[in-house]
C-alpha cells in the first residue's frame, strides 16, 4: 500500500477494472456479487492513486478515470 503505481500502470489497471466490471454486468452478474469487499478495495485504491497522479502531474490521466464506470474510455 505504501508504494505508488506508475501512471502507465494506473491507466492500464483502471481500464481493466472498468472493462471487467462492465462485462460482468452485461452478462447478468448480480450487483451484490460485483460490489464485493475486494472490488471496493481495488476501486478505492485506484481512486486514491488517480487523485495522487492528478495532483502530481497536473494534466491528470488524459481522460481516464474511475468515475463514470458505465462510459467507455477509448
Automatic annotation (TrEMBL):
One of its GO terms (biological process) is positive regulation of exocytosis. Coiled coil: none annotated. GO terms for cellular component: glutamatergic synapse; presynapse. This is Uncharacterized protein. It comes from Champsocephalus esox.
Amino acid at each position: 500500500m505504501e508504494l505508488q503505481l506508475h501512471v502507465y500502470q494506473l491507466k492500464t489497471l483502471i481500464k481493466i477494472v472498468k472493462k471487467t466490471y462492465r462485462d460482468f454486468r452485461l452478462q447478468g452478474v448480480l450487483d451484490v456479487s460485483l460490489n464485493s469487499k475486494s472490488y471496493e478495495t481495488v476501486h478505492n485504491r485506484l481512486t486514491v492513486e488517480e487523485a495522487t497522479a492528478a495532483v502530481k502531474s497536473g494534466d491528470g490521466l488524459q481522460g481516464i478515470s474511475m468515475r463514470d464506470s458505465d462510459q467507455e474510455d477509448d
